[in-house]
Design brief:
- It contains 10 helices and 15 strands.
- With 337 residues, the protein is α+β, with helices and mostly antiparallel strands.
- It has 2 domains: 166 residues, Aminopeptidase, CATH 3.40.630; 158 residues, Aminopeptidase, CATH 3.40.630.
- The strands form 2 sheets. The chain has an 8-stranded mixed β-sheet, sandwiched between helices. A 7-stranded mixed β-sheet has the order 9-10-11-12-13-15-14, sandwiched between helices.
- A hairpin with a 4-residue loop joins strand 3 and strand 4.
- Helix 6 crosses helix 8.
- The protein is elongated and about 70 Å long.
Length: 337
């Protein structure tokens, strides 16, 4: 199986990845970050590394921009004692993962796990996913909790304690998604990240590359704080903002028409129903208007199909945006009397 996110390719390990893998897991910084004492020798014999790379669900995480292996993901059947995972039923997976030190703290593993966990829970009949980490491995603890994992149990490993964290399939959904009004500064920053990341995921080849290059995360944050908290809902998976919708009206320009100004979600949540939940939240706020409009880039076929499923249809109006050097079309949703 091979998967893509905005920045990454997640693919089965190749023989050519072996040296990068060996050097990556031997890095002292990686050992300390993941909770091993700096003085502990955890070197892995080459033959073990070779067998690891040959496992059927051992994946390389590759940065698409540089074609560099930046980490790994291993997916195995749970082999823990029954008392540790007591109460869990159905098919499960245990994941092990690491980002190599030069690529840490850039959101790569969060991007990887979001895509992989979402896919497994939605498409492969998986009921739960388990990850374990040492008690003093704060980066993994924080990351997993941010993604919606919760502590399920603890068990001893030699003279150490491992925390077992679980995420489960709930009510047919991938994870527990919350749709709420945007309120906090952290949510504004999260909304800005979604805005920035979504443009760089969805719009290459559709809008001016020069504009995309100038549309930085810093610029997106300034725009988000300038826009403020009003007329915005965010979608959250755990504490992480994964999408947002902006809504309102055109005032005296079109007093009978409400408008969806923006709707974006991260690409790893495409097809999960999050976009529809956000659209429903925005439309609920505009229920007093007899018609709702939105503008969408003419070449953004995926978005147009989504809006058509929500009941919108092009009305023939077009507008060329000089900023992004692309044409937008207007779509209208007429309310039933």
């Amino acid at each position: 199986m091979t998967m893509e996110t905005g920045r990454l390719l997640i693919r089965p390990m190749k023989e050519s990845d072996e040296n990068t893998f060996v050097n990556g897991i031997a890095d002292r910084g990686l050992r300390v970050l993941y909770g091993f004492p700096a003085e502990m020798d955890i070197s892995v014999p080459p033959e073990i590394c070779h067998r690891f790379c040959k496992l059927p669900r051992a994946y390389s995480i590759v940065e698409k921009k540089t074609n560099s292996m930046i980490g790994f993901l291993l997916d195995v059947d749970p082999e823990l004692p029954e008392d540790i995972l007591k109460g869990l039923s159905g098919k499960g997976r245990t994941l092990a993962f690491a980002t190599f030190p030069p690529y840490q703290r850039q959101g790569y593993m969060e991007e990887t796990l979001n895509a992989y966990v979402s896919y497994q829970l939605q498409n492969n009949g998986i009921e739960y996913i388990h990850c374990g980490h040492f008690t003093d491995n704060d980066p993994s603890r924080c990351l997993l909790q941010k993604l919606g994992f919760t502590e399920y149990s603890r068990h001893a490993f030699k003279d150490r304690i491992i925390i077992d964290q679980i995420i489960q399939k709930m009510n047919g959904n991938i994870m527990n998604i919350t749709i709420k009004k945007m309120e906090t500064d952290d949510e504004i920053k999260g909304k800005a990240y979604v805005h920035w990341q979504s443009w760089h995921e969805a719009y290459p080849g559709i809008v001016s590359q020069d504009y995309l290059d100038r549309f930085t995360l810093e610029k997106a944050e300034k725009m988000a704080f300038r826009w403020g908290r009003d007329h915005l809902f965010v979608a959250k998976a755990g504490d992480r903002v994964i999408g947002f919708v902006g809504y309102g009206d055109r005032g005296e320009e079109a007093p009978e028409t409400g408008e969806i100004f923006a709707l974006y979600i991260l690409s790893e949540y495409y097809g999960t129903g999050v976009g529809k939940q956000l659209m429903d939240a925005g439309l609920e706020q505009l229920k007093g208007y007899p018609q709702i409009c939105l503008w969408v880039l003419k070449d953004n076929k995926r978005a147009i199909r989504f809006y058509e499923k929500c009941g919108f249809h092009p009305d023939g109006q077009e507008m060329f945006s000089k900023n992004v050097e692309a044409t937008e079309i207007r779509m209208i949703l007429h309310k039933q009397a």
